[in-house]
């Protein structure tokens, strides 16, 4: 059933949360974000302490995103399989096991990066499966509210996660932080088991390479959807690359900058998702992508940390540009492959974030973190402007 994106979302947050299944998916997602945030902080701190390398630190915090593209290209069709609950439980179990391995004190860095890549692969499949279930769980017209709520929660949880990570790091070792993340992952698994039902009516599509490639080929053959994906992936990924340099740039103040960015993300998704209607969200999408990058240019001037925290908070509002683009992408997607397409979108965005971290880290090796953040932000602005002309070729809202 197509979602009417021409009218404001009628389904409020409280209405969504009264549904037991949505509440379970939402709560498990929240715990997963918290666990991922703590794990990234722990691994980034550990790698920075051992190597002192901005490149390796950036990659360690966002390196799992490189593997998400493998899931998108090979097995993402499992997101639309006939047993999504069973699939999601299994994927949560893999994540829990991987986090437990990271908690081992004697694990070499090479092994840690290997585990990171494996987790990225399976986390991308879990995201596609969860988003497919989300589209089936919420009522017609409630998708924008559901994505807005999960995005707001992601920002709020990341704020608390980074703040808690900075606080706990004073009393716990990185390995103990991984153990805390493992407990959060265990809670997410338990919530899915207790609240999510198996779908009794779903297209029995055999998942695998052929099904994945077939749906992906149809997705990328559409020029409008290609432009939507690029706008979702590229500006976002480069700015996350800037954020990956916060630890090398600010050291002990990195938690403040990371929390400020997450707070801005929360504010943006709350404002754009609940106060703007679909037409207004679409109208502001380009400006939000510019807002995402422009404040990061200040880093090249090295102002005081409080000034940078405000700039990062303002920039974080720009992440809300994903919401109107995601609405348009879902509208253009057949129901039978919704989970896979949303999984591909998420995996591509995460992969671009990993590439952004690697690019920013590589530039920082040459010119230092401050200049690197400014340069990468400038590139994001230029690419955002360059992609705008093709944005009008995307699927029209409401099918017009």
Q: Topology, please?
A:
Blueprint: H1 13-17, H2 20-51, H3 54-62, H4 64-74, H5 84-102, H6 109-137, H7 143-168, H8 174-195, H9 209-221, H10 223-243, H11 246-250, H12 254-275, H13 278-293, H14 305-317, H15 322-331, H16 338-367, H17 369-391
Helix pairs in contact: 2-3, 2-6, 2-7, 2-8, 3-16, 4-6, 4-16, 5-6, 5-8, 6-16, 7-12, 10-13, 10-15, 10-16, 10-17, 12-14, 13-14, 13-15, 13-17, 16-17
Kindly describe this structure:
This protein is an all-alpha fold and 400 residues long. The chain is 76% helix and 0% strand. The chain is built from 17 helices and no strands. Helix 10 (223-243) crosses helix 13 (278-293). The protein starts with 12 loop residues before the first helix and ends in a 9-residue tail after the last helix.
Residues in β-strands, percent: under 5%
Distance between the termini: 16 Å
Overall structural class, as computed from helix and strand content, comes to mainly alpha
The main sheet comes to:
none
Give the count of helical stretches.
17
Mean pLDDT: 82
């Amino acid at each position: 059933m197509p979602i009417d994106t021409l009218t404001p979302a009628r389904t409020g947050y409280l209405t969504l949360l009264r549904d037991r299944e949505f509440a379970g998916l939402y709560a498990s997602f929240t715990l997963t974000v918290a666990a991922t945030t703590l794990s990234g902080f722990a691994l980034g701190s550990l790698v920075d302490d051992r190597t002192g390398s901005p490149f390796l630190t950036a990659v360690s915090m966002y390196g799992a995103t490189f593997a998400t593209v493998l899931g998108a290209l090979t097995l993402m069709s499992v997101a639309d399989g006939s047993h999504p609950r069973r699939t999601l439980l299994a994927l949560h179990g893999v994540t829990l096991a991987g986090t437990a391995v990271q908690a081992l004190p004697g694990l070499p860095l090479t092994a840690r990066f290997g585990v990171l890549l494996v987790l990225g692969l399976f986390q991308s499949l879990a995201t596609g499966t969860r988003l497919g279930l989300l589209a089936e769980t919420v009522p017609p017209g409630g998708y924008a509210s559901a994505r807005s709520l999960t995005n707001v929660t992601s920002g709020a949880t990341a704020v608390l996660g980074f703040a808690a990570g900075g606080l706990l790091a004073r009393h716990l070792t990185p390995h103990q932080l991984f153990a805390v993340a493992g407990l959060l992952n265990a809670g997410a698994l338990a919530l899915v088991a207790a609240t999510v039902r198996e779908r009794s009516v779903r297209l029995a599509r055999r998942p695998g390479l052929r099904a994945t490639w077939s749906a992906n080929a149809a997705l990328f053959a559409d020029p409008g959807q290609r432009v939507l994906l690029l706008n979702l992936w590229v500006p976002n990924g480069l700015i996350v690359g800037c954020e990956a340099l916060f630890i090398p740039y600010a050291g002990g103040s990195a938690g403040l900058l990371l929390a400020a960015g997450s707070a801005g993300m929360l504010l943006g998704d709350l404002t754009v998702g609940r106060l703007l209607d679909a037409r207004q969200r679409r109208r502001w999408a380009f400006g939000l992508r510019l807002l995402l990058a422009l404040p990061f240019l200040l880093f090249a001037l090295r102002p005081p940390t409080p000034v940078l925290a405000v700039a990062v908070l303002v920039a974080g509002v720009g992440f809300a540009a994903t919401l109107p683009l995601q609405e348009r992408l879902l509208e253009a997607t057949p129901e039978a492959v919704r989970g896979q397409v949303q999984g591909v979108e998420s995996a591509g965005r995460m992969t671009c974030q990993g590439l952004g971290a690697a690019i920013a880290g590589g530039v920082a090796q040459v010119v230092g973190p401050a200049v690197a953040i400014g340069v990468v932000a400038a590139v994001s602005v230029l690419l955002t402007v360059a992609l705008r002309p093709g944005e009008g070729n995307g699927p029209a809202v409401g099918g017009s």
